[in-house]
Amino acid sequence: MSTIQKLITVGILIVFLFGCQEDQESEANPEPVIDVEFLSVEDELPKKANEWLQRSMKSGGVHNYSLEGEEYVYAQGFEQAKASYFYEEFDGRSHSTVQTTFLKGDELDEVLIRVKFNKEINSVTMDFIDDRDQFYN
């Protein structure tokens, strides 16, 4: 085998090995089902979401607004938020849920989040926690 043939063979092997490694990496890290984005009340939102936000801020408390593939949540009196995705199968049926969890804060604190999801969601639930350790664990 000539030197050029050896170099070509080694080059093909390297490309093959790195190509396989990349595929394994993408399978090990699939695209997330949900994405949580922390927003400011000054951020630009779609027109209807902005109208909802203005009404929500005036009335205080916790409010949510759903769009196709997105869920906005405004929570006054809370300092932090997180979201989780749950998928369950039972009795031959499946059910998927996005749960948002909020950490209680001062009465003037506010949190605005947008949760985007790339799967069909059956329900969105909210949970409220006073205990910081419980929230972060």
TrEMBL record:
Top-level taxon of origin: Bacteria
Protein's UniProt name: Uncharacterized protein
Organism the protein comes from: Aquisalibacillus elongatus
